[in-house]
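COMPLEX REQUEST
Ligand: FE2/S2 (inorganic) cluster
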Amino acid sequence: MYKILAKRVLAQGTVVENEIEAPRIAAKAKPGQFVILRVNETGERIPLTMADTDPNRGTITIIYQVVGKTTALLKSLEVMDAIMDIAGPLGTPTPIEKKGTVICVGGGTGVAVLHPITRGFHQAGNKVISIIGARTKDLLIMEDKMKKASDEFYVCTDDGSYGHHGFVTDVLREQLTKLGSEVKEAVCIGPVPMMKFCSKVTEEYGVPTMVSLNAIMVDGTGMCGCCRVQVGGETKFACVDGPEFDAHKVDFEGLSKRLTAYVPQERQAMDRYEQ
Ligand code: FES
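STATUS: Structure written out below.
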């Protein structure tokens, strides 16, 4: 059992941060890796990226948006309650090395996934420019931590309630135009349309780009095939070959279709849970 040590409800009550006692995972986790958890013995298995880890305290931090039955159930747990099982760290760690200037772009809860990667690039001696965005100011998360992990930091909101009025792609384009070939890599993590459009922008400027794919997962060890994605015309398993892939080769349309394949069943499960 994995005890919840802290709980914070963020972003209009729909996003939750939990610090969880998981010393063996915290000791091994690297940026880009994730866990798969099951809230109780009849629960489904859901993948969540660690927004932070503290090997000294033996804790991992997850941030998730309440989008269905499992995340609603998870949100119902309070401090000192326990999650039944957490498997991890899973997935291939982000290849982090000193490259020069790296742009990190995050949208919505994707910022939680982006944070350890941003910090990793920063600690490796890169100049890190971060751009984070959300629909509105109240939905922005991890602003302070992202700022701390960056040399330059920009915020965007779709409705103009904070920072740049517009999309992260606007600021990304501005930076790429200004810095040109100084930018050696971009990392874009967030909703699928955001990653798709960021990837189109970086492709125009010839900047290698990495995205983290939030595929539906079951086992997380490459056995069920549920997390399959098309990358460069080949089938890859997001859980073991990823979750990060070359953005310019990802079939984002195929990913969107697979992510919505179980929406009716997810709605039914949520309706039953709420009754
Ligand atoms: Fe089963 Fe990836 S989650 S193969």
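REMARKS: The two ends are 28 Å apart (CA to CA). Residues 229 and 255 are 6 Å apart (CA to CA).
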